[in-house]
Amino acid sequence: MKIVELITDGACSGNPGPGGWAAILKYGAHKKELYGAESPSTNNRMELRAAVEGLKLLKERCQVTITTDSEYVRKGITEWIHGWKRNNWKTKDKKPVKNQDLWEELDAQVARHDATWKWVKGHADHPDNNRCDELAVMASKTQKSSS
Question: For the domain bounded by 2-71+102-146, which CATH number is listed?
Answer without folding.
Answer: 3.30.420.10
